[in-house]
Write a structure and sequence with these properties.
Family: Belongs to the HARBI1 family.
Distance between the termini: 46 Å
Strand content: under 5%
Main location: nucleus
Largest sheet: 2 strands, parallel
Number of helices: 4
Subcellular location: Nucleus
Shape: globular
Helix content: 40-55%
Structural class: mainly alpha
Radius of gyration: 19 Å
Keywords: Hydrolase, Metal-binding, Nuclease, Nucleus
Pfam family, one: DDE_Tnp_4
Length: about 180
């Protein structure tokens, strides 16, 4: 078991720890366990967006899946970047207790969401070239209680990759 897996296992086992509602998942990098609630890319395949420059196209369902996975993670990273642009306290290391850091991050995110809701035009958006996407997770959903690699989860990822591949091939044949 890798270090990342131990961190996740510890995080979800705590009383007020990480909550992953069933039916949802975190996009993780290849160092994490591909198990229920934690979706990783395929190992040994192109992944990072810069590897797709110069109009390179995917050669397999695994490469296409990794391309889309990387793009989605990039959007998430851009959201964190957006928060860091707005709130200087998030840009530097802090020596606050973890409990306080979590409250600071939550407060910054809440203020950010309030600003977005109340302002007809946010000037900070002009500095970003992609739209900010929000998703709502049900508060009372059943949550994942343990992390382990499973045949069912790997099959689900393979089926998702195959569906993406089929749709991509069909869209290329239409043009």
């Amino acid at each position: 078991m890798g270090g990342y897996s131990r961190v996740f296992r510890d995080a979800i086992s705590r009383r007020n720890g990480l909550k992953v509602p069933k039916g949802f998942f975190h996009l993780c990098d290849v160092g994490y366990t591909n198990g229920e609630g934690f979706l990783t890319p395929y190992r040994g395949q192109r992944y990072h967006l810069n590897e797709w420059r110069q109009n390179r196209t995917p050669c397999s369902k695994e490469e296409l899946f990794n391309y889309k996975h990387s793009g989605a993670r990039n959007v998430i990273e851009r959201c964190f970047g957006f928060l860091k642009m707005r709130w200087a306290i998030l840009r530097e290391k802090s020596w606050y207790l973890v409990k306080i850091k979590c409250r600071i991050i939550s407060g910054c995110a809440l203020l950010h969401n309030h600003i977005r809701r109340e302002m007809t035009h946010d000037p900070l958006e002009d500095e970003m070239d992609e739209e900010y996407m929000e998703s709502e997770v049900m508060e009372n959903a059943n949550t994942i209680q343990y992390i382990e690699t499973s045949y069912a989860w790997t099959t689900w990822r393979n089926n998702l990759a195959q569906e993406m591949w089929n749709d991509w091939i069909a869209s290329r044949n239409e043009t």
